[in-house]
Every structure is written in structure tokens, then in C-alpha cells.
Fold these 4 entries.
Entry 1:
Amino acid sequence: MTDEQQLLTDLREQDPDAFTALFDTYADRIYRLAISMLESEVEAECVVQDAFTRLFESLDGFEGRSKLGTWLYRVAYNLSIDRLRKRRPDQPLADEADFEDESGLMPAIFADWGEAPEPVLTSNEAQAELAAAIAALPDSLRSVFILREVEELSTAEAAEVLDISEGAVKVRLHRARLELRERLSGYFSERIQE
């Protein structure tokens, strides 16, 4: 029996240590996904609570076709999307229309960040610029970027969470990286020249 199967068995038997272990493992990760999408600490905390509540209510029906963590990410993603739809009911969330136009994918400013001194790259100011650039990404690109680059999910896991193909995950991740590079190139090119 794998650790995941044992954890699932323990959860179904309502072992409090299993609930604690699951929460400790995934609560912060789910929160990061939700806050990246919702940009609201209160709403992100609600998503975390709702995701775990749904897991506990659905344990008996969980078939184990995916990992518990992947399932939790999917629930948190859907809960976040639901909250976004309530905020802006007339605005589409998918951003797919933006993907049709391939122009503008190459950065206008090229900065060789490899030349930047490490303190420039790791400063609080640089971290704030990166966070702002990530927050400015369209929802669909931001969610892929967070799942792949921050939470380090595999392409297959991210595709399962987002209910899109692995190819779409790769394309969105590539586009997210290009947008981030475009947004951050000006900032870093100024600091590299200093």
C-alpha cells in the first residue's frame, strides 16, 4: 500500500492525524493558488476552508483516479473560478481570445538577466516587481504559472487541475513566461546598467 493509499484509508477512518497531515501538506499551497487568482486574503482563506470541507464530504466517493493533492488543487481552482465569476459575471475568464493573436509574444526589450548581480535579482524590490508581474497576468496564464512554477506540479497534474490538455498547459506556461519577461525586462535592464 502506498503512502497516498494509506492516507486515504486513514482519512476515511476519520483519523485526526491524517486530517492534520493532509492540511499541513496542502493548505499553504491551495492558499497560494487561490490568492494568486483572487487577490484577496479573505476569499483565499475561504477557498482553502471550502476545498477541505468538500474533500471531507466527498471522501467516500473519491475513486483515487488522481492524487488527493491534485484533486484538492482542482477543487480550489474551481472554487476560485466560481468566486471570480460572481465578481464579474459578464466578463469571460478563459482569455482564449487573447491567444489567437501570436503578435506581440516577443519582448520589446531584451535584458540579459544572467549578467545581473545576484543582489539585484533577489532584492525585496525585485521580488515585489515579480509578484506584481505575476498578478498582472491574465487568469488562465497566472493559474498555469502558479501551478507549474510555484507549486511545481507536473504538466499532467496541472492539466488535470485546470481540465485542459497538456499541450494547452505548455502553451499557456510559455506565454506566461514571455509576458513576465516583457513586463520585467525594463525593470532589470535599468538595474543591470547601473
Note: DSSP finds ten helices and no strands in the chain.
Entry 2:
Amino acid sequence: MGKIKPRESQNVEYKSSWHDKYLEWICGFANAQGAVMYFGVNNDHEVIGIKNVDRLMEDIPNKIVTTMGIVADVNLHEMDGLEYIEVVIETSNIPINYKDKYYYRSGSTMQELRGPALQQFVLKKMGRSWDDIVYEHATIDDLDRSAIDYFLKKGYENGRITNEERNLPTEILLQNLGLINEEGKLKNAALLLFAKSPQRYFTCVRFHIGRFGVNEADLMFQDVIEGNIIQMADRVIDMLKAKYLIMPITFKGMNRIEKLEVPEDALREILYNAIIHKDYTGVHIQMRVWNDYIEIWNSGELPVGYTSETLYGNHSSQPRNKNIANAFFKAGFIDAWGRGYKKIREGFEGAGLPMPKVENFCGGVRVTLQRKNVVESVEKTSQKTSQKTSQKIIELIRNNAEITTQEMAEYIGINRRNITRNIKKLQDQKIIIRVGGDKGGHWEVVSPQ
């Protein structure tokens, strides 16, 4: 059996025979990166021949044209007396459907696009993005001028907005940014960037932060950041500094220096990426803070063919939301050349930390970054906090032996789960005991701490 040398293509498929179901594949390849399909050839590239060649040479191109409206190059070849068919599918610049269904080849799978995924695909094929869609029932009065002024101030400070632009009326400014259409109607991007309450229009415009202990079930505390996305990164950083991350103190001469435990500029770049490239038809952005690492997740996967290695190397910028990306560029928050991960790499290398890991995960992008030498510090802080809590529990029991765990939680100001955890430690250490059941029983301090 002779082996063929396949034509160069990003995708090559080998099929031993023809079935009309492969029209779905052709549709999927036309919507993706194109492909070459061989019929009468096995997976080892060996020509095994195909039956009814004359009929197929007529049927295949006709069915492709009549069902999808595209023309594929269908060629007949022969090797060692066996005939096989080559079908060359080019990438289409418009969405292609087969029997009113849209297929897309992603990796090694053929997917039928539906709902938000189909909407995103059609918009992309048309050279538009979701944030370019007009929101019919919103007006300029729904925008927060202070958010616009913040944007203009940052853009002016970073040399990307002129002093003249800072004094433009809101409507003219929005026109210049492409955030309003010819009829004066706001686009989705305008509301995400500058609305007084973006959550009124898009429920997923939130940034959830959670501090976790030993596992996913051990949620210690959490916060939700809301508001416009142009100021969201600032709000997240402020919250992280206040509650979640450590700012070690160093001295340079007589100057006291407090720097975030992870490189702040690089962290901002990661936050900007999560905000700009998020699929706003999906769910909120999520940040999980653990003892020794941080996870940031946003809905919407990386561009097709992009990996962590791609991002850290030279690559083109492919923003999911073009208008949002343009506004962040004008504000001076990002570059327009895909250089963001270069800044992230330089920041983490300078801090002596490993590169953040970037990967597709659960329909979105997850970035995992290591915290700097904080595990021991966190453990010591946790031990001190636990000791203080335990001492307060003992004092409360001495004052009221019948006190409940819920009352302890309210007095001390922590959740009931933490109270229960500390009580168990005290019981294990034989410092306190429970006499009787939950109802009618009481606590006793049996050993001084």
C-alpha cells in the first residue's frame, strides 16, 4: 500500500470512505482555519481506495455548494491503481452554516455553536465584538461623568489624551472613542466602562475575591467588587492591600518602603487582561487567594492556538472586546502590541518569582501566580489569631458557661465555622469540656491556658 504526502495545512483529516455527515466537518473547517480532507486514505496515510469515485466527484462539490454556499477544491488522485479524493477547504470570511447549524473545528473536536458562543463567533467573523453592540434602552444620563474624568486624567498623565480632549463634551468624547453610534445610542462598552451602575445592565460585571484555607470548602472570608470596569483594577488592588495580601516593610536609608508581596505592576497587567478579555455574557471574574498562591479566572478562553508559551513570546494582540481594549489603551493602562505578558515576565523575574501559569480552564482563562515567602508568615499570623480567639472563647465561657457558639461568633466578630474550629482545638488540648448536650448543657474550663 502506497503512502501519500499530504498537502501542507494546519488541519489534515484522513477518512477511509465518504459519508454525508462529513459535510458538518467541512462546515466546521470553513468556519475555523480551513483544512485538507482525504477520502480513501487511512490514518497511516496509506491509500486504500474509495468506491463510486465518479459519483462522489460530482456529489461532493455539489452538496458543498448547495448546502453551504461555498466552493471547495475537490481533486481525484491515484496511487498504485487505487483512487482517492482530496478536498481542500479554505477559511471563510463569513459565518457558514449547514442545515441551519453552525459548526466549528476547535483543536481535535468538532463543535456545534449555540447561544453566546454562536453570537461571539458571528460577531468575530463580521469584524465586530460583543462590546460593539448597541444597548437600546440606555442614555448618556446613565453614565458617571466622574468615571469619565478618571479615564481622561489617566490618559492625560500617560500622554495618550490631549488637554483639548479632556475638555470635550461627553457625547463628542464617546464618538471619538467609538462608544456611541450615529443615532446617539450607547454601545455595551460605554456602559461597562462608565455607567453609574453597570450591574443594572450586565449582572456579571463583578469581581469576586475569596480567601481560602486548606481546601475549597474552607472559605475564610470574601468580598465582591462592583462598579465600572475602568476603575475596577484600582478597587481590587486596594482591597488586596487592605485584607488579602502582605506588604513587607523594608528601609532604604531613613525611608520606609512598603511593597506588595507580588510585583504590583505585573499584577495590574494580569487584572487588566482579565477585565478586557472577559466574556461579558459569562459569569463574574473570580480570584482565589491561598496561603502560597493566587488564582485569577475570567470567562472566555484564549484565542485559538494561543498557549502560555505564546503569550510570553512575541505575539499579536487579539482582544475579545475591541472597544474596551481601546479605552484601556487610551488610558495608558495597556499597550496595543501584545506586550502585556512581557511586562508580567519582567516583573516576576525581578521579584525572583516563577512565571504565572496561564491556561484554559472551565470555559475561561486561569492565571496562577505564586506568593513570595508568605507561607511561614501566614502560618504565624494564623497561629496568633487562633490563640487570641481561643483566649476570648475561654473568657466568654468563664463569664457565661451556657453561651452558644453563635453567641461567641457574634461577640468575637468571626464566623461560626472559625469558632467551632477553635473550640475543637481547645477540647483536644483538654482546656475546655462540654457537659451535657447542645440543649441544656454547659461549658467548663478545666485547665488554664
Note: The mean pLDDT is 89.
Entry 3:
Amino acid sequence: MITTNSSSLLFRACCLALTVTAMTFAIRAGILTQLSSEFGLTDAELGWVNSMAFLGFPVAMMIGGALYNQLGAKKLLVTAFICHLLGLWLTITANGFWGLLISTFFIGFANGAVEAGCNPLIAQLYKDDKTTMLNRFHVWFPGGIVIGAIISKFMTDAGLGWQLQIAVMLVPTLIYGFLVFKQQFPQVHRAASTSTLSNFKALSQPLFIFMVLCMTLTATTELGTQQWIDRILSASGASPMLIMAMITGVMAVGRYFAGPVIHRLNPVGVLLFSAVIATLGIYSMSIATGNAVYLSALLFAIGVTYFWPTMIGFIAEYVPETGALGLSLIGGAGMFAVSLWNPIIGQWIDSARTHATTITNNDLDAELLAGQSVLANLTLFPMLLIVAFTLLYFYMNKIKSANVVPADSLAK
């Protein structure tokens, strides 16, 4: 039997596993310039390396979601632990483009297994407060990015190589692996095959499909921008890794105190508000330089804070028939979209830099113009979300008026 204390320990193990996931994201962003220099990689090639992490993630999410009822959260988290160890070690020993591709895929697969196991586990442990607890769990994605960004900055400033920065992540990986092996996990629904079949059937609901499409935009807005922050803002006059630490610090605090925000605005209102602020944040970053970049980044941080956990919480609350499979696929769709956009963003940077060098003889100015051009392109994603979430807002209000969805559930 799972007690309150057991639930708390399981929640902490999940949070630490997600912290490792986030650290892989932040430290990879922080060492892109070192990788480019050491292996002679273009930004387009770096984009392909980045894309492997975002491709491995949805592959694990889809497999984990489909098999969750048979495997349970513990086996998925054990898989994540093994793949994290393997991916980190292969990254440290990589000697070129292909080695980085393979190792980064394993890390992405591990990250996806963490989400595939933890999201439905937390929804099961906290049945009456799913969206709030999922937001608190996802505090540790920005929280881990803060940790990773600070580690990367100080190790880089100290002249320590990228291999040592990767090796640092082995420590929290071993700790969360120990916790996972030690804890007792709740039993999965007995009628597993029937439950999984009903989950698959529920995926055809128009609301679920609509939210999957929106997730591709929310994830690219948040992660597509942050993963390239060092390359995009390197010539802006602000420190990219300090900006990442600030962004994710704001996100961590916002997610921890998500409960009152979710209850006051409801999930759809939160998503619409987030899209508007994210648009303003990215656009202002595209025209800002110096200290003004920090203020623009703050707007961006507020905008993307609630995207990921609220999208997952929305599915858990309003399309619960999709079960663990639905939670996995919504997250997997977001990461898959980012994997597709990463090489394109890299090409945008290469092309924008080439164009900028034709109008200025200053390399720094060319980097600044290239970064601003890419940010202007990224503004399109949250702008589309403003339209999508406005439509969703009116649709959910219509359902509420028709009493199809109880009014009290919409306030959760």
C-alpha cells in the first residue's frame, strides 16, 4: 500500500530524475560553441545533434505511453536511468558528429522515459490535484536548467572542458537511480489490455488532436528558443547562460506557485495569457540589446512558464480517457516538433549570418543581426497560439454553458 510518505518520496525521486533531464538540456546548450570549435561543426550540424535529443524523447514517450499499463512507472524509470548513464558516457567519449548524434539520442530517450513514467504516476498519486502537482513536478525542469546553466557558465569561464561538464550529470543520475530502485511503486490498473485499448480509441477525439497540434507550437516556442540561446544572444551584450538561468529561475518559481493561478484563470485562460506574453517576450528580445535583453527575457520567461505542465494537466483533466498514453503522446508531440525545427533553426542562423556579413564588415554585428533575425522568425509560433487558445477559450466556455463539462471542473 502506498502511504502519504511513500507518495512524497516517489514524487521527490521523479523531481530529481526531471532535474537530470533539464541539466542535459542546459549544459548541451552551454557547450554548443565548444562542440562547434572542437569538431568543426556548422550550426546546421549542431541542429541535427540537438534534434536527436528531441527525437529520442518522443520515441520513448510513445513506447512508454503505449506500454505503461503493462510496464508501470518503475520499469520506465529504470530504463531512463540506464539510458542516461549510457548517453552521458557516450557523449564524453564522442569523437565527432556521429558520436554526438548517437549519444544525444540515448539521452533524449532517457529524458522521454522519465516523462512517460512520471507524468501518469503523479496523476495517479494526486488524483484530486493533478494540474497543480504536475506543475510542481515540472518546477524541476526549469530548476534543473538553472543548475545546469550556472554549472556550464562557471566551468566554461574556468576553462574546464565540455567533457567535464557532461560528467557532472552522472552524480544526480546515480542518486535518482538509487531512489527508484529503493522505492515501492503503486500497482497499475489490473485490466491493462482493456485500458490500453480504450486509451487508443480516445486519441481520436478532436479536442485531443487539437491540443497535440498546439503542443507542437508551445514546445517549440519554449524549447526551440532556449536551446539556441547561446548562439542567438551571444552578441547581444548580455550573458546567454545568465539569461537562461534567469528565465528558468522565474519558471521554477511560477510553477511552484501554479495552484492559485490555475484556479483563478483556469487552464485555458492560463494558456491564452501565456501565449500573449511569450509573443511580446520573443519579439522584444529580437530588437533589444544590452541590459534591455534581460527585461525582454523576463517577459519570455513569464510567457512560457505554464505552457508544458498546463498542456499535460489539461489532457489529464479534460481528456482523461486517453490515460497514460495521452499524457505521453502530448509531450512526445511537443518534443518531436522541436526535433524537426532544430535543424531548421540552425539553418536560419547560418543563413542569417551569411546575409548579415554582406551588409556589415563587423563579425560581432553580423552575429547580433543573425540572432535578432532568428528571434523574429520564432515569434510566429506564439502568435499562432494566441489564435488557437482564443478559439479554445470560446469552445470550452460553450461546453461549460451546455453543462457537458461540470462548471466546478473547469475551475480546477
Note: The radius of gyration is 21 Å.
Entry 4:
Amino acid sequence: MLTDTAALARAGLDGVAVKPTEVEVRRAADLGVDAVTVDYEGNEYVPSAATLADLAESMEVRVTTPVRADGFDPLGDDSRDRDLPDSVGRVLIAGNPAYLSEAETRRPIAPRLREALSRAPDAWVGTEGIERVALAVGGTQFELLSASTERDLRALRAGGFEGELAVYAPTVLTADEDTVLDAVGAYAARRRPVRESLPDGAATDASATGRAREVLLEGVREYALVGDIETVRERVARLRDAGADHVVGYPARGVDAFGG
């Protein structure tokens, strides 16, 4: 049972990202924010049109759609995309190879993003791994939080980019270091700067000690929104000052932990 449905809003976030394999997506409506992004984890996990339509009655809903995947390919099989309710928006992404077949990973990304965006001009475009392509096709740029995000946002604004900018970040609303490391230590460890700085064979959770723990704690602060509500709110404010229009948090400890 959530004890504080306004925790996300008080932390400055205006949206939440949910994974259908982890939580019933309808629960996003209980988190006190205005928007939800439903992450893609394979066609078999895309929520039903009825579920998405119901959720869209109470908040803004966007579904992450990989433009290379069968069912969402605007230059091929787009049957799953056409089944999405009109009230649901899109976050267009290249797609994680883990969720794609070998044939799908070979499909060109840029022409598919352009075609998908022409059909859904209000779509966001996920930039992970395809930053230049995403910027070239336009749309709201959906950035994954990193150590350089604030600098990158300022550079885009200084360069004259007038479109919307959104930031996605794993979020842990606690100052307890062990809890933070258990939730996002392994995530941070997969980022190249952190991975290269970690001692060989080091633990990446709360059991990490010494140099490994120092590296991980620095990494989670760079690649995730972590800390008490005030600390996260200050980080979100800096992102907005740098140019972000939207900040979307993924509940790394589950939606119940967003209860404050």
C-alpha cells in the first residue's frame, strides 16, 4: 500500500516509467504524477489496448515502441502499433537487441524513425545509442540520464534546439547507501566509465567495499536519481535549469518504494 502518493511530484518528477513484467501498469495512476511511459520488454508483454485506454483516462500515457520490431515497424509489419489506442502516445526507440531477432537488428533505424514520427508527430524519440540519428529526425528528445546530461542539454539549447527535451532516470528515493546500491549499483556498473573504474571482480551491490564502493556510489549519483526527496528535487531542478522539459523516473525498487 502506498503511503505517500505525492512522493514523485514532491521530488520534482512529472512522469514515471513502468515495466509490464514488474508491475500492473494501472498502478501508475496511483503515483501522483501526470504521465507514464510503458517500457517495451517484448511484444508478449505489451499491455492490452483496453488497459492502456483505461489508464489514459486519468493520465498521459506513452508506450515505448521499437521501430525495428515486427508489429511496430512503420516500413513493414506495424499491426501492433495500429492496435494501440488513439489516446496513447509513443516513445520511438531503435530497440534493445535483447528483445529483437537477428533479422530485426539489421533493419535501418533512421528511415523507420522518420516514418514513425511522420505518423505520430507528438512522439518522443529515445536517444540511447542513436543520439545523432534521433536529433536528425526531430521530435522530443528522450535522454537517458548520465554524467554529461546537464552539459548536453545546455549545449542543445545553446545550439538553438527549440524542441522539447525529456530525461529518463532510474530513481531511488532514499539516502541509505546500502539500499541505493542494491537497487541501482549493478545498473551503474554497466555504464562504461564506472565499469572501467571498478576493480576486477568487485561486488556491485550493498556488499561492495573500499574502492569499489566509492566508485559505485559516485556512479549511481551520476546515472540515477538517488537520495532523499529534497536531494532528488535539487537534481531535477538542475536538469530543468539546463533545459529539460520533462523528467521521468523509473522506480528501481518497485512502485511501492515511491510511497516515500
Note: The chain is about 35% helix and 15% strand.
